[in-house]
Amino acid sequence: MGLMNATPLPEDVFVAWLMQQPKNADLVAAASIEVARLRRHASHPGAKRLHDLFCALISAKKAGLRPKTSQLRQ
Length: 74
Fold this sequence. Notes:
Layout: H1 10-20, H2 27-38, H3 45-65, H4 69-73
Helix pairs in contact: 1-3, 2-3
């Protein structure tokens, strides 16, 4: 009996990618490269989910880089 080729979950792929990034890596830049790569496979639901995870990371990181409104008033 042969081994089944199970496709990993997009969340597992995302976490593995994230864990492999070097310390102090520019995650926005690295994730943007992955988003561009995944656009070619947008019709596949797993690739679409992975794309969305990378986009969420980019959005979260960019939101964290913006000064908060309360800091601007000081």
